Amino acid sequence: VCYRAAEKFFESFESGKPEIESTFAAARDFLQGYRSSPTPASQSPCAAATKAYALATKNSPSGPSQRALLAFVDEAVFTADDGLDPVCGASAEAYFTSNI
């Protein structure tokens, strides 16, 4: 899941897309992969890195967005490996798509 998302980022960035657009493309790819395989995705180093990133940005100028990110990661990745809530997943995917 993580490898595929990383590949998507580099593919997008190397094609000349801005970093933020490439990040959203990778995030959308990660969600799609996670949706089909939640347990391995939640146990991957990528999931731990995502949570570390969210925690590291806790003093971000966008406090509400950072708290939303951390809550999403906690719920989607670190609770019972039951997968991504369909409504939450669809919302996140639509958000990423709208920014690509």
Quick rundown:
With 100 residues, this protein is mostly helical. The protein has helices at residues 2-14, 19-36, 38-42, 45-56, 63-78, 86-98.
Overall average pLDDT: 76
Number of strands: 0
Unreliable stretches covering 5 or more consecutive residues? none
The radius of gyration computed from the alpha-carbon positions, rounded to a whole number of angstroms, is 13 Å
In terms of structural class, how would the helical and strand content be classed?
mainly alpha
Let me know the largest β-sheet: none
Instruction: Give the count of helical stretches.
Output: 6
Which of globular, elongated, flat, extended, rod-shaped describes the shape? globular
Q: What is the subunit arrangement here? A: single chain
Helix content: over 70%
Distance between the termini: 20 Å
Strand content: under 5%
Give, in order, the helices and strands: HHHHHH
